[in-house]
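Our consortium's second objective concerns turning raw sequence data into structural hypotheses that experimental partners can test. To show how far this objective has progressed, the report includes one record in full. It was chosen at random from the queue rather than selected for favorable results. The single chain below, 383 residues long, was entered without modification.
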Amino acid sequence: MLTAGHVIRWTADTFLAAATVGSLYLLIAGVLLIRYRTSGSRQLARAVPVTILVPLCGREPGLLLRLRALCDQDYAAPVQIICGVRSPDDPAIEIVRSIAVERTDRRIDLCIDPLVHGRNLKISNLINMAPRARHDTLVLIDSDIEVGPDYLSKVVAALQQPGVGAVTCLYHGLAAGGIWARLAAMGINTHFLPNVMVALATGLGRPCFGSTIAISRDTWRRIGGFRAFADHLWDDYAIGEAVRGLGYKVVVPDFALGHVCSDVSARQLFAGQLRYARTIKSIDPAGHAGGIITHPFPLALLGFLCGGGGQAVALMVAALICRYILCWQVERRFNTMATDYWLVPLRDLLSFVVYVASFFGATVKWRGHRYRVIDRTLVTDSH
């Protein structure tokens, strides 16, 4: 006869089995991380003029330094930088103008245009900026991305390889603030980046990130320009899929950029993480559901709470050790910031809470607006 005790024991065993598989997944991720290489060229075949498009919204921490880094590229051909804002009162305008005065050797254009073309305000910004682009090689980059002096050379070199329609870049987290920013950066380094590496190594992933999208003007026109993505939440992924739809490859070079995290509260952190998780769920529901194995520590903890005893405790320790090893390997592979190892258990629990919450609803908050994600697109939420 099936009793409550049997159900609880079966539940505990299920959690422990999943935690065991998850710990093995972390070890495999570490091996793939070390061995990961791409076929992208590291030499610039031909320096061509480039237009860099940087959509802005507000005075983000470190924005001045990041714009300077774009101006200081070690690149032989002309570079135009277009910064776009929607409001004439946006505090980012002052920063852009100061850079333009400081760096008269670079062409820096400022686009101020409140016209809205769809629910994705970032894409609306890019639509307004696009007519100012002077060159046929376009590089889109998010305003919170930190680059090195050889960034443009590497990206353009990869774009010039045969069969390549677009180039995107991996990124690791950089904290610009207190504990919430550190937890956000840690989530990128200890969860997002390893998971992407596994997806790339196994061929299960088809990523395209807002950290960088380099594309020719001809390919950009053939996918419908920015207007084709005006209602997409995950616009960068949609752009990548459109490029692949033309028969081209989207290349990911074997270096990572810095993603600056500036979360100042638990609410801001949770909202951003939930938006990301629900977007992934809308893109790949089956893969997102299978992602439960990427949370071995919380699973082992649940097994312990269900009466798993010493076996559950051992698995909790093993899961944390595997996560620590993976963190260390990410630091070595991409020269990232040192991990706050004492925060790893908290970060793992937070990631699991966000993962579970992602299945209960489709509402996301973005730039002060509430939307529902339906079939990968944004629909204004009336509640």
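The partners drew two points from this record. Residues 296-334 form the longest helix (39 residues). The two ends are 47 Å apart (CA to CA). Both points have been shared with the crystallography group to help prioritize constructs.
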